[in-house]
Write a structure and sequence with these properties.
It is a single chain. Helix content is 1%, strand content 54%. The chain is mostly beta strands. Strands 4, 5, 6, 7, 9 and 10 form a 6-stranded antiparallel sheet that branches. Strands 37-38-47-41-42-43 form a 6-stranded antiparallel sheet, with no helix packed on it. The radius of gyration is 54 Å and the shape is elongated.
Amino acid sequence: MAAVTSGVAYTATVASGSTPNSRFYVSWAQQSQSAESNSTTITWEAGWEGLPGTAPQYKSNAIKILDGSSIAGQTITAGVWSNQSGAGTHPLRSGTATIIHDTEGKASFSTALAAWFYSDKNLTCSGSWELTQIPRASTVALSSASVAVGGSQTVTITRASTSFTHDITWKIGAAVIGSHTGVATSQAFTIPASAASAVPAKVSDTCTVTVTTKSGSTVIGTTTTTFTVTIPDTDTYKPSFNAVVSRVDNTVPTAWGVAVQHQSKGKVDLTSAAAGTGATLARWSVKGPTYSSDTTLDKDTASYTTTDVIRTSGTVSVVVTVTDSRGRATSKTVTMTVEAYAPPTITPSQVWRCDSAGAANQLTGTYASVLATWAYASCASKNTATTKLEYKVSTATTWTTQTVTLTSGTRATVGAAALQTTSTYDVRLTVTDGLGGVAQTQWSVGTAQVDLDFRADANGIGIGGVGETAGAIDAQWWINARRGIAQTLNSRVVLPLAYSYYNSASSMTGVLKLALPVAWNSTMMVLAIRGFNYSANSAWTITIGGYNYSNAASSAWTNTSVMVHGSPPCGTTVRLAYDGTACCVLLGTTTTVWSYPGLSVAADLHYTGGTADAWKDPAKWAASFYTTEPTWTPAPVTPPLVPATVGALTVTGTPTFATGIATMNGSWYEERLGTNFYRWTQTTTVTVAMTTSWGSEFYGTANLPTKPTGATITSVSVTPNNNGMTTMPNVSGWTVDCVRPLSQSSGTYSIIVVAYGTK
């Protein structure tokens, strides 16, 4: 029902009787409202009304309001009146009533009247009304929707009564960060630093402002509103710490007092660690050229971590980052000096037979003159090196140590007159540094030099030296076999280098035809054709098996097969043909492109027909190219492609990586290393946006290439092709962090990715 400020209710009109055309009424009117007392005061009146045409009434006890009548909960006292007559209103009772509103300022009330005339009894009426609502709690507005700790917020209050005052509380969660009492219409509040403690795990939170409206000590109502409190991104609210990095000697002698590349580790100590105001420490990380770790911090105490072995030298930077519970992080770069280290190296120069004075004497000398230069890492002048010179007869197993003082770059004499002129000797130099790094080289000192030596037992000869081995030719000189070398045994001829071909042209197109030195002659053969694919950076081998069966009725290639290793320009397009004069091998198609084409052929021949000599002359082999397919009779034969087999592993198709066991999985070389265990490799490029977030080092993150199909990756390593680049791959995120010292702009970088896993 709608709110009103007055009202009236009537009984039914009496139609006949002692007072016809009469009725009773009860009326009311609002006089005032009090916001302070939350009440409305009304006046009321109850009586009877004579309508036009009513009859006079003179009888006693004729008009009466009955017990039980009420208005707004007040009982109207019953009574009897007489000597009242005529038209118009005749009040019988009146009064005032105060009606208390509810907490929302709402109120309603009702009336009930029972009365009678002398001849008309039990007349009743009733009514209900809603009073005008009284404003209760004040309305509020804030000056800002977001305020940082240390900033100011103002509450503006609109109140229903100037006598109202207000209590204000400021809360973040359950924590009260401020309060005010007796506020009239406005209150400014500076967000205290202590508010940060109420927001330990976020950089912002909601502050609830509760305004309680009061009249004196009486609570009228409450109003709430909210705004965002933010934690400033300043040093006060970020983690603070000190960090130092020191050497861990590991394999380096403590007395050296220096860190050494490939040997030492680094110890990173975190001290005085504290979270930003109001937060707690969460974790800290250490990242460097060869190391990355992430450690949880449970308390504000010192902590440390030890790096992997340091793989770089010079000033090595380590970035330490401490993160608090809000995710705010502070990073510092600490450095340490690392001495460069590599194992010793030996550069041999000369060795020959000599006399006791060191003068060269290849005919009768029983000593060896050795000249070698070696080097080892200084490690800030802490490292040293020792040398050992040994010799033995080449067929012996025991070495004799020569006691001699050796100086790098200075000739030394070894042998103590023990190097007999009839034997070949091995001379070995070993250099060992203070870290156990070893370099070793070995020379061979031949027998006394003679042009030709026939053994006394007539069972062998020596060329350029003494014949040491019975039943063999000992050659101290290079053998330049211009006509090739052939081994014949049990009707089989083996030619280690039957033929070689090379063309210096950077690009040639067409089928490479390799003409064999024979026509159909019934030879069971294995031909190993080797070459280098310049454009694909790949060595390759094509192994052909076949039988060029000779038959008067129809000669043909039979029982053929081919295996392909590596990436030859021709791929797996290999055919066996006959050009009318000679049997031949056809590699590729008329559109195959060859870059600096070259090949060599090794042959293993079982000559069941013809003669072995036909195969031995390199001049009878030939290589040529053609770009138009000629007519062949019979048609060329395509040997079946045989899987390359290594142990129990078999790979079908075209192996293209890691000879004999690799296939392609998209852009990846896929190798099965064991039962459901694989290695995937590819060279690719990544685009890295470099930033200088690590002091002088440039840093960026890039996505790794799409994973191999069906693969579950368990580990991954990334090797950059760019000097100075350091990479740290992330298996779970399938990304790679790239770090480059000094100056380096954003750009595209070449990397080699190797991943292991199952599928």
